[in-house]
Amino acid sequence: MPAHKRNTAFIEYLQKFGADIDFTEIQATDDLHHADGILKECMQKAETLWNTQHSFFMVNGSTGGILSGIRACTHYGDKILVARNCHKSVYNAIELFGLQPVYILPEYIESYHIYGSVSPEKTERILQENPDIKLIVITSPTYEGIISDIQHLSEIAHRFHIPLMVDEAHGSHLDLSPYFTGGAIRGGADIVVQSLHKTLPSLTQSAIIHFNSEIVCAKSLQRQLAVFQTSSPSYLLMASIDSCIELVKDTSLFQAWHENLMMFKEKTKALQNFRIFGYTDTIPKNSVFGFDYGKILISCTDTVFTGNRLADILHKQYHMDFEMSNTETLLAMTSMADTKENLFYLAECLLNIDKQDIQGNRPLYQTIVRTVPESHFIPSVALSEPYKMITLEKSIGKVSAEYIWIYPPGIPVITIGEVINEEIVQIIQTAIRQNLNLQKTISENPYEIATLDI
Length: 454
Ligand SMILES: Cc1ncc(COP(=O)(O)O)c(C=O)c1O
Hints:
Oligomer: single chain
Strand order of the largest sheet: 1-10-9-8-6-2-3
CATH architecture of the largest domain: 3-Layer(aba) Sandwich
Bound molecules: pyridoxal-5'-phosphate
CATH topology of the largest domain: Aspartate Aminotransferase, domain 2
């Protein structure tokens, strides 16, 4: 294996897909799940770069790392503290491992309609009220670039003798230079999961999990990585991780990226209607600890546009595509591979649209939950209950049998086992009206919801 035998002369497409370096585990190529050869050496380079006890390469994105990390830190049925704005892989772990989630809702940033940082004070209060919590899981930076105070959160977690795991899928570029800071490894987190492919030049799915803990067992994490990942990891992906690690030792690349962003900042100062988080707007200190300037989050709230409409204009008239748009905002993700011209062009396009007559005063479209719905069953229990479809209007007070997300970013509006309330129904109705990408795990009709038949 692989059956293509790297015979690129035999089939033309193999060359295009890089089959000539597509190896499997043979003596010389080592074994990801029991590394003691070249892969071990590569991972040691990562440990030196990030200053960790262990750094393991991953080929199934942060998703595999999140499942493995949570499993390694918990026993079946444990209680864990989870930031409500976590990615769906965290919710999958909760369901799979029969965990009891206690949710913490991050601070809310009204002007951008996004979640802010996780409050250390609230975290501490929840831990005092729930001394049986075994793990804290949060996302930092968030999809939109919001960073939490990891140092303070780690210190609290360790005082309660529990680990802090940080989903840093969007932060693999942090603390590798003085230009982008606020990373979770330096902050003292026990386990940090990064998608290299999201913010550094590496192939899709390539990721890394870092371990720096006196509480968690490294062997247990390593075992779970072999449970949740393929037994045939792609050498293309692992070679990509290795090359990326070599590349990012050169801090001048981060400096150039930073300088491009500062040029963008200077140019967009002239915007009158669009606002850009941390660029043309100051950061609200009461709800945000830190921000990753690699993210360009454009607010349309003071204009006649929704973020989706702006994305549409930029796509059709200016031939640009974006990471995410929703009712209030448009998100551009930048990286060191963006050219100065790219960012200059984006600034020009925004200025062009901004100078038209777009000022507006429309109501905010409420699409994220402001209170965590009451839980009736933990997800693993709710999963085995029978369910039936019911119209949205009649669903208030019933228990949801499904997960509902607006994607991206995929933060749940409601999870399985939670009680549907008026706020949830209103968010779903807004998502339908605004044509957002509403994803549900059971019901297909947008006006229906699967509820437990109890
Ligand atoms: C915050 C966050 N965590 C985890 C993930 C999963 O990462 P991956 O796609 O590398 O599996 C994503 C993906 O979008 C994400 O946004």
